[in-house]
Amino acid sequence: MKKNALKGWGLFLMLQVAAIGFGQNTVWKVDPSHSTIGFSIDHLVVSETVGAFKDYTLQVVANKQDFSDAKIDLVIQANSIDTHDPKRDEHLRSSDFFNVEEFPKITFSADGFDISDKKTYKLIGTLQMHGVTKQITLNAKFGGIVKDPWGGTRAGLKIWGELDRYDFGLKYNSLLEAGGLSIGREVRIECRVELIKS
Predict the structure, then answer these.
(1) 94, 170, 159: which is closest to 134 by C-alpha?
(2) 4 — phi, psi (to 5°)?
(3) Mean per-residue pLDDT for 94-115?
(4) Which of 11, 16, 70, 170 is positioned for an S-S bond with 165, CB 3.0–4.6 A?
(5) What is the pLDDT of residues 19-39, one digit of tens each?
(6) What residue ranges define each of the domains in the chain, with the CATH number in brackets?
(7) 10 CB-near residues (< 8 Å, 6+ apart)
(8) Distance, CA of 107 to CA of 171 (rounded, Å)
(9) CB contact set of 123 (below 8 Å; sequence gap of 6+)
(10) Residue 96 and residue 85 in contact, taking contact as beta carbons nearer than 8 Å
(11) Alpha-carbon span 33 to 194, nearest angstrom
């Protein structure tokens, strides 16, 4: 009886995992229509400029249902930067900033989350940008896994944090007459990602 009970319990657990489409080495791809790889930065001390990268690939591989072991690989095409101002975007693509001809890609990779509680994670990964590679730590919130109305399985992540652009050699700036820098050093990362199980 005990063996049969254990077999039955094991089968039940397997079916529960299958019901949400989760298994070993589950691969998730980004849904770009419901995702944003964005940022904001101070401008003229008193306001902010916001933007996003429009061309990127993101793949997540996870074995655990809470995504705590998620392996993340993000590749951004630097020339896809969009701040809703074509003239400014061209300047950002130039050698004053991203220098996209020499450094066409921005990459980020991580091998899992550090779970501080059930809802908020720490994401420690390697960012390569403008020829500089550094480890950074971001905040993350895992939204969970659901079945969508079209028979697919989806997961959601929100990722945010801050980095000093000077650390990556992005040092262009100008001084204001009243003092202070026209463009802030601190860049706020703001990403909202919806993933679809492959």
Answers:
(1) 170
(2) -65, -40
(3) 94
(4) 170
(5) 444 556 889 999 999 999 999
(6) 23-197 (2.40.128.110)
(7) none
(8) 20
(9) 72, 110, 113, 114, 137, 138, 139, 140, 159, 161
(10) no
(11) 9
